[in-house]
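Reminder to self: tokens first, then the designed residues, so the page reads top to bottom the way the pipeline ran.
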């Protein structure tokens, strides 16, 4: 029973793990600088998936004997290249934007909850209220709009003159009319 507990392998294995951890750290920091700020800024779903996968590959390269260090570094580089190309495609083409990136969704309009939109994106009234409180609004009517952004954040646009053709709403999914 006690022999099943693996608290120590050997000094060479421990040194290998330490050196791999340092190598992966330096590599990922350098790759982050090369790929750009987007890889560490507020993440949309696509960016989040890539970063989780890169973390998993780094952990495998550091800890697992079966995964060669260079293999894990190449896999992380491949993911970084795919992320760079995908973000370029999104920025440069309408098709790329449509395929990869979710559109922001309008959840409230001038104090009215847009229930169908909230149901579609699975956002509750309580989550909208929390976003309003965070923005310093004490009631829904204090906001022109609450928008679910592509990174999952709820943006609150304070009450002011303006309508749905405002510049900031050009890429937002806007339902026909409030329902419920």
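Designed residues (180 positions):
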């Amino acid at each position: 029973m006690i022999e099943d507990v693996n608290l120590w392998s050997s000094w060479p294995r421990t040194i290998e793990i330490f050196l791999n951890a340092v190598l992966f750290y330096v590599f990922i920091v350098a790759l982050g600088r090369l790929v750009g700020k987007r890889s560490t800024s507020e993440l949309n779903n696509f960016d989040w998936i890539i970063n989780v996968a890169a973390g998993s590959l780094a952990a495998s390269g550091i800890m697992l004997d079966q995964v060669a260090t260079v293999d894990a570094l190449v896999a992380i580089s491949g993911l970084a290249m795919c992320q760079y190309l995908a973000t370029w495609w999104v920025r440069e083409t309408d098709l790329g934007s449509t395929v990869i990136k979710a559109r922001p969704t309008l959840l409230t309009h001038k104090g009215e909850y847009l229930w169908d939109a909230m149901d579609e994106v699975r956002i509750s009234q309580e989550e909208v209220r929390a976003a309003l409180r965070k923005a310093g609004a004490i009631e829904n009517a204090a906001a022109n709009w609450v928008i679910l952004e592509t990174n999952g954040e709820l943006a609150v646009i304070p009450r002011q003159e303006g309508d749905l053709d405002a510049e900031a709403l050009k890429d937002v999914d806007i339902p026909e009319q409030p329902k419920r």
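The mean pLDDT is 87.
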